[in-house]
# Entry
Amino acid sequence: MFDNADALFLARIQFAFTVSFHFIFPAFSIGLASYLAVLEGLWLKTGKPLYLDLFRYWLKIFAIAFAMGVVSGIVMSYQFGTNWSVFSDKVGPVIGPLMAYEVLTAFFLEAGFLGVMLFGMKKVGRKLHFTATLLVAIGTFISAFWILSANSWMQTPTGHVVGANGQFLPGESWWTIIFNPSFPYRLVHTVIAAYLTTALVVGAVGAWHLLRDRDNAHARKMFSMAMWMAALVAPVQIFAGDMHGLNTLEHQPAKVMAMEGHFDSHPDGAPLILFGLPDQDARRVDYTVEIPKLSSLILKHDLDAPLAGLDTIPDADEPPVAIVFWSFRIMVGIGFLMLGLGLWSLAARATRKLYDWRLLHRFALLMGPSGFVAVIAGWVTTEVGRQPFTVYGLLRTADSASPLAAPAVGASLLAFVIVYFAVFGFGTWYILKLMHKPPHSDESEPDRAPIRTAGITPGPATEGGR
# Structure
């Protein structure tokens, strides 16, 4: 069935499919690990059992999401050797160490303390357990740090030299590679997105249980905490996104041109196209709804500032405009909906109706999965906007793929689709099942400790002490 397909296209679809599945879980676990640290810290500080109940409630969900994130991430790394071996050969001296640093720092830190966090509440002291929770949360951030550094280098490559064999080699300083021009902006934008994604899920679960029982103290607390996060952090995210956009305009102008739908240059101020249908072949956006000169104001802070269009970019170097155009609008639209939810919650809080406005609760419930949609839309904007390059301006995607036949790539893609939907579909169903159950007093820890397999591990005492 794949005999007439394009192997490169199938390889790109396969990586896009697996990375989209994978990105959902780290985006949730990064924020949830920090939320768990906050809950346990509040419990230690106040002594209120409610915080411990919420900690144990979300700990079970975190364990499943974390496990699915690890498994889906391992699969992605194998594709570098199967579908993208030329890319791995070319950029391995730069990307390889960055990914190794993630394993040596974040992965070992998480693996070392995750078991204590999940099963050690009754086996170690409170302070030691809280330390383990903090270290797991820090580990998730460090993991994001290294992965985003590697990906950002592909967006804005600096600090390297090209060897005689065409490989990208480290230059004089690794700091220039790690802290490449787009990395600080992308790190802040992505980590805040993870926190907002988690807040929206927590808020949706709280809203769901408030709709069923508005006197549930646990639901009230989680909903209140989530709404504070939305109200305070959503404006920060919009500002961070604007700064990231300005950085992208400086280093990847073609991506911004595609995001804005600017096929033509605008010497006297560019309009902001709110909606339209990009036609890359005809070099125009049809049925536009636009605001004159607003794009120049946003990107250059000047209504009459000139903005270059895709007419200044060679056709072979243009990204797919329609995908980037719409994914960017989905991300931005959801961002403003998050801001609206936060402002609505502030109004409800000011009138002491936070737990009574059922329309607010329904809106929060509806917004529950929106964070995942936003982070995937943002990832699509970033990655598709970088095309037709894997290393921006230096290595083309067409020159990065392995010399595989289309049927081989198509067969593995089909297998991924079937297995992913089966395995991760079940995992997601189980997480939703846990969320459906309301939190209550005296929540228990995860009820299955790790299996003891070491021969020196003492087993339970037998009758007669033998």
